[in-house]
Specification:
Structural class: alpha/beta
Oligomer: single chain
Strand content: 15-25%
CATH architecture of one domain: 3-Layer(aba) Sandwich
Number of helices: 14
Largest sheet: 5 strands, parallel
CATH class of one domain: Alpha Beta
Number of strands: 20
Helix content: 25-40%
Bound molecules: iron/sulfur cluster
């Protein structure tokens, strides 16, 4: 039996891609191991969104030289976004690398394995792990935007939506294997369309799959949240009331230079409309984009005040080679660090405040352990009684303590 050790970097899409790649390896007789020393194959699924993520993946590859030398028959697969960006230069630098499979090649991963001659179909396929409570379902790949700081369009290419029937089958398989919650994944997930099936239609259809109690999605783009979307989903309680909606900056000028496709005002309008339908909103913010002035940064701080996010993940701008923003004159690191500190101080109390708003409300909690689960709005809830894992418990929230709610069940 070929034992495979998987190291995944980056986003949830990469986690889903690693599962998909492993399914092809399992069809060729492989089984998973979490011990590198007993593995015959290592699959590194990489991320290139930040320099740091790419660097970690490449250093891990470098460290595998000794592992491979121990048993030269061992196989190393380097896949995903960094593999796409770095390409064959990597194979030259690390000649012991056996298979390079870029992010655009995920659909052809099975053929890549066959072409390598290192794996062949087996009568007794290996076991793929059960999905757990959340089943991740990729619905689209790529992105049609060209945000000036982002490397994704060049490594993943333009949008390709998967057929709706394939998505429903994938969701049904995961629900049958025990998933109660389906997380739909895509780089601009709410741009999804297959013929006349819109993203809102897809959400409603996935929510009807037997066994599915809740549907989540990530990462959406603000411009696709239209009044039609809201009208189509507002009465469906299975569509989770939490959206992670990256804003990136509070300054319209910077948003235009980032080519985000919306203004500060449009973004705020969208979140007010989403909030009116009960959605709880978290976000991503970049500080220190090359053209960001002190005034632009103040605009970001004031947007945080106005938007009342649930959580804001804040990052320093990191130039990615090959993107337009990397060619611009960069701000000093000291400025980036100061602004990040100020922003982090501002966002620190956001979650506690959001948790307090839940006290006195009635919530449906999907139990992840006998005493703890998550509400539709993605708040952690502790119950006093024990409940079966995977059950939905309707209960009133009695009090909040930091980022934990206590239920009166
Ligand atoms: S929308 Fe912009 S930031 Fe998001 S993946 Fe596409 S190009 Fe990158």
């Amino acid at each position: 039996m070929n034992k495979v050790f998987i190291q995944t970097y980056g986003c949830q899409m990469n986690v889903a891609d690693s599962d998909e790649m492993f399914a092809h390896l399992a069809a060729r007789g492989a089984e998973l191991t979490d011990k590198l020393e007993e593995a015959d194959t290592v699959l590194i699924n990489t991320c290139t969104v930040r320099d740091h993520a790419e660097h970690r993946a490449v250093s891990f590859l470098g460290r595998l030289a000794a592992w491979k030398k121990e048993k030269p028959g061992r196989v190393i697969i380097f896949a995903g976004c960094a593999a796409q960006r770095l390409g064959e230069a990597l194979q030259k630098k690390y000649p012991f690398l056996d298979i390079l499979s870029g992010a655009k090649g995920i659909e052809h991963f099975a053929q890549t394995l066959d072409k390598s001659g290192l794996f062949s179909h087996q009568d007794h396929p290996g076991q793929t792990p059960a999905p757990g409570l959340t089943g991740y379902v990729t619905i689209m790949r790529g992105c049609n935007f060209a945000c000036t700081y982002c490397i994704v369009p060049s490594v993943r290419g333009p949008i390709k939506c998967l057929p709706v029937d394939d998505i429903l089958q994938d969701a049904a398989r995961k629900a049958a294997a025990g998933a109660k919650e389906i997380m739909l994944l895509g780089q601009t997930v709410n741009a999804y369309r297959d013929g006349d099936v819109s993203f809102a239609d897809l959400l409603n259809r996935v929510s009807e799959v037997p066994g599915v109690e809740r549907v989540r999605f990530t990462s959406p783009h603000p411009i696709y949240f239209t009044p039609q979307f809201l009208a189509a989903v507002k009465d469906n309680p299975k569509i989770a009331r939490h959206i992670h909606l990256p804003v990136q900056s509070g300054s319209t000028k910077v948003l235009q230079e980032m080519k985000r496709g919306y203004t500060r005002e449009v973004f705020l309008d969208k979140i007010h409309a989403l909030r009116a339908c009960g959605f709880n909103i978290s976000t991503d913010i970049i500080v220190g984009f090359p053209t960001e002035t002190e005034e632009d940064f103040r605009q970001t701080l004031s947007l945080v005040d106005e938007a009342k996010f649930f959580i804001a993940y804040c990052y320093k701008y990191s130039p990615r080679q090959g993107t337009p923003a990397a060619e611009m004159k960069q701000l000093e690191q000291k400025v980036l660090e100061e602004r990040l500190d100020i922003l982090l101080n501002k966002v620190r109390g956001l979650s506690d405040a959001a948790y307090l708003t839940q006290v006195g409300t009635v919530q449906e909690v999907l139990m992840e352990t006998p005493h703890k689960g998550r509400s539709s709005g993605n708040f952690w809830v502790k119950t006093s009684k024990a409940h079966p894992v995977g059950s939905l418990v309707r209960t009133e929230i009695e009090r909040a303590d930091g980022t934990l709610l206590f239920a009166r069940d």
